[in-house]
Amino acid sequence: MAGVKARSVIVYSVLRLLAFLVPFGIMMLFPIMREFYWLSAIFAALIGLSLSLLFLRAPLDDVTAGLADRRARRTEHLDADAEDAANDAVSRSTGDDTDAAGPGTTAGPAAR
After folding, report:
1. pLDDT digits (tens, 9 = 90+) for 63-86
2. Residues 90/93/99/105 CA torsion (nearest 10 deg)
3. 8 Å CB contact between 19 and 48
């Protein structure tokens, strides 16, 4: 998690868990909700989702920005490696060494 700050991921995860567990715990205090615990879990999930959409926008933005940066850096490296491999394969298959001769010169049979 080099690109993503571990602190922001942990903070967001803990706040999301609290957004679910606190309403669930409050609802479990009522006797009727103890009998229908699955209904309490559904209501707590809906309440937690609503709370996180309303109040946890900044931590979510931090986490997603870090993930996007990490993904962009990984893609840049993969693209550069793939491009180098493709150039090497083309130069090996044609037998040209145009890169070795330098820019503006031709090292192939046409230069003779």
Report:
1. 888 888 888 887 776 667 777 778
2. -110
3. yes
